[in-house]
Prior knowledge:
The chain is α/β, with parallel strands linked by helices. It has helices spanning about 25-35, 70-80, 115-120, 145-150, 155-170, 175-180, 180-190, 195-205, 240-250; strands at about 5-10, 40-45, 50, 60, 85-95, 100-105, 130-135.
Amino acid sequence: MTRFRLLVGLGNAGRGYAATRHNAGFWWADAIAARLGATFANEAKFSGDVAKATGDVRLLKPATYMNLSGRAVATLARFFDIAPEEILVAHDELDLLPGAVRLKQGGGHAGHNGLRDIQQQLGSTAFWRLRLGIGHPRDSEIPQQDVADYVLKPPRTEELRAIEDAIARALEAWPLLAQGDMAQATMRLHTDPASVKAAKSSATSVQLPTLSPLPQGETNPRPPLAGTPFEKGAAKPAATDVAKTAATNVASSSKDPS
């Protein structure tokens, strides 16, 4: 049975990043620390802010830039002999709408620099992830916005409310997570509120054009509708693969906040 001993919230340290979408993991870490009566203090040897909760549960907010998060996680995990399966990492998730939250173990990093570095530093993908939806720029008012620009900006007021609601629901599920009841925790977390369901419905509803019947005797197919992928020279749909988007839009440097 899974028993979490290390709870990690991902984000960027510093006041300039505090309110950005990329810091959703930090927001959760602060909330769960308050729930557990734990207080963060900077511990340089672990490259981050650490809090001690009940028993041997520890909380961590890496003080490195996002793409170096794994250094803090791996250092603390090895010091206290914490296995990857005993680690829960909360992070912002582009592929989920604001207000949605998902729990999963393992998998890829989908272009998320923090997850990528944790995988590399731990040498494992077996840690658990608490994925906090922040939405994707392609679904925003500025769909051409770079992913890096999007995650490093504050969410809109209604998006922030939705993310805060997701964090509140994650806190309600904590007793189940602490007990190792992943099935019940997953069921609770994956039940979206009405606001998320409505947003999903709106995003997936496509109004198809109504075509008039072919004139009697006409056998040749009609030309394709303007703007469809079948029209000669029409623009292809934007790629929806987050990993590809992030790879082209997010700069990779030794101190990369994205």
